[in-house]
Amino acid sequence: QVQLVESGGGLVQAGGSLRLSCAASGRTFSSYVMAWFRQAPAKEREFVARIIWSGGATFYGDSVKGRFTISRENAKNTVFLQMNSLRPDDTAVYYCAAKRVGAGPYDNWGQGTQVTVSS
To answer: What is d(CA 5, CA 12) in angstroms, rounded to the nearest whole number?
Structure first.
């Protein structure tokens, strides 16, 4: 069973940086897509970024393109989200998600980590 555990959230001032981590276990993830989503209060869940574990191809949501970077470290089965130039509207709970390449919706989720950006 896939387990995803996020960490690294916190409070940061606008313009600052944070790095989120997602520790993945329970599978060999070479055939998986790993992603970050976020959900702000009273808003729908929003796609942030994804990475194909094998090969490392990445894709970003328009609102974070050029500011956020997704990466993975194979040896630690960990996915990272480096967030730079943070803005107050980046405030949300950030979730790590996983699915097999070619599958439908993401079917494995972490518990989330809160990111708060103050102005």
So the answer is: 21
Average pLDDT rounded to a whole number, residues 47-72: 96
Euclidean distance between CA atoms 92 and 104, whole angstroms = 25
Cα-flanking dihedrals φ and ψ of residue 74, to 5°?
A: -60, -45
**How confident is the prediction for the chain on average, in pLDDT?**
96
Tokens found for residue 101: 């390449």
Q: Average the pLDDT over 95-117 and give the result.
A: 96
Mention every residue, 6+ apart, whose C-beta is less than 8 A from residue 104.
none
Sign of CA dihedral 108, 56, 59, 17: positive
Angle at 48 between CA 68 and CA 2, to 5 degrees: 110
Q: What is the mean pLDDT of residues 94-105?
A: 95
96, 36 in Cβ contact below 8 A?
yes
Residue with the two structure tokens 């130039």: 85
Q: What is the DSSP letter of 114?
A: E
